[in-house]
Amino acid sequence: MKTMRQPLPETIFDVEAVRKQFPALHQLVHGKPLVYLDSAATSQKPQQVITALEHYYQHDNANIHRGIHKLSERATELYEAARIKVQHFINAREAREIVVTRGTTDAINLVASAYGRKNFKQGDEILISVLEHHSNIVPWQLICEATGAVLRVIPVNDRGELIEAEYEKLLNAKTRFVSITHVSNALGTINPVKRMIAAAHRLNVPVLVDGAQAVPHLAVDVQDLDCDFYAFSGHKLFGPTGVGILYGKAATLEAMPPYQGGGDMIQAVSFAKSTYNVIPYKFEAGTPPIAALIGLGAAIDYLNQLGLEQAAQYEQGLLHYATDALVAIPGLTIIGTARDKAAVISFALEGVHPHDIGTILDQEGIAIRTGHHCAMPLMERFQVPATARASLAFYNTKEEVDVLVRAIRKAQEVFS
Ligand code: C6P
After folding, report:
1. What residue's CA is closest to ligand 1, atom 21?
2. Ligand 1 centroid – CA 212 distance (Å)
3. Which of 133, 215, 243 to mutate to test the pocket of ligand 1 (most atoms within 8 A of CB)?
4. What does 166-198 look like in DSSP terms, one character per residue?
5. Atom of ligand 1 nearest to the CA of 132
6. Measured in angstroms, how far is the CA atom of residue 73 from the centroid of ligand 1?
7. Residue 163: which pLDDT band, with cuts at 50, 70 and 90?
8. Quick count: other Cβ atoms within 10 Å of Cβ 77?
9. Which atom number of ligand 1 is nearest to the Cα of residue 369?
10. Cβ proximity of 179 and 228 under 8 Å
11. Ligand 1 center–CA 102 separation, angstroms
12. pLDDT tens digits for range 370-397
């Protein structure tokens, strides 16, 4: 896994050419040019992805793995080719380690339920962190309730960085699982997951990494990380909604019972007993999100052509520009100042509720997210009910950051 800190000279990354490929960016909102700063919630889609979806529905639409007819064959080929694109994108060893899910939430629930049901018992400890999205908290609470296992929480310092020494103390002979986010959706903190995985593995504890906010910003190599599971959503990676990926080491997936029952996940069914398909199909019950996976494959093609590393360097430059511009606003506090950070800026503005900031910014054509960002325990840790969050992607520009700064100053004037 590499993180890029040095901005590239701007001539190397042609952001205007990139923007042309994202049709939704070119519209007026309340009569103003859209400034889309909500990519952590969902990213906009390049034309290539939209075209792939359209082409699939116009020419190839059929169910997969079932029919002997031509369209079903074509749809199956496209679906399995997209799985291989995902495999290479995160450098998984084998395509069967890539399970297609409905999203990150679905992927984490799958592991908590299927792995947890088989392996957790009364008094076992599951480690998560205070940075987690609700999707990486509640599934573990559910399995703890069912098995008697208990949840332990890794704290953060005032910058919003995980305290590794506390993590090491929490790891012990009762620890059965660690599930941590790679990048915090609310603060942007990039966690040292490779070191944390190595520490857990010294005690033979498996680790799931929630990569929902990492894959759009960092080059992820699951073999290098040596994680046991890695989960992410297509829609934050410039692909369609409704599809996500669970990477799991083959041997671990094979040892797990199925998560859901239904078509495609079986080998044979009788009323006496059913037997299950091989991985990854054992975990893909029912008709999967065929078009969405094909669209995600197109998003990966797009990112490979663009060069994710170059785009990430550009984005880091933009993050620094935006951070400097925002901290210069009197009364504005950035919440989450980790030294290693992805392009997410959460902030509070003295005397103005985050929802009011969001409403005023919307009138200026600026899309940000306000609220608890599905991270209520983290809001509690920083003693704020909510934040305003601007999240950047490689299609954003310095000019858009300037528009944001002007609009925040306007909000301050309105409420002063
Ligand atoms: N965060 C945000 O605005 P789904 O909804 O399954 O695609 O992803 C859930 C999820 C899990 N983990 C992290 C770190 C996330 O950021 C998210 C989604 C969005 O921050 C929507 S709440």
Report:
1. 41
2. 6
3. 133
4. HHHHH--TTEEEEEEESB-TTT-BBP-HHHHHH
5. 14
6. 33
7. very high
8. 12
9. 3
10. no
11. 12
12. 999 999 999 999 999 999 999 999 999 9
Residue written as token pair 């103003």:
32
What's the pTM? 0.96
pLDDT tens for residues 196-232?
A: 999 999 999 999 999 999 999 999 999 999 999 999 9
Confidence at 3, pLDDT banded by 50, 70, 90: very low
Ligand 1 center–CA 207 separation, angstroms: 19
The C-alpha atoms of residue 174 and residue 151 are separated, in whole angstroms, by 11
Which amino acids are annotated catalytic?
374
Q: How confident is the model at residue 281 (pLDDT cuts 50, 70, 90)?
A: very high
Please name each of the domains of the chain with its CATH number: 15-33+307-415 (3.90.1150.10), 49-305 (3.40.640.10)
264 burial via Cβ count (<10 Å: 0-12, 13-18, 19+): middle
pLDDT, position 192: 98
Pocket of ligand 1 (CB under 6 A): 40-41, 103-105, 133, 135-136, 181, 185, 210, 212-213, 233, 369, 373-374
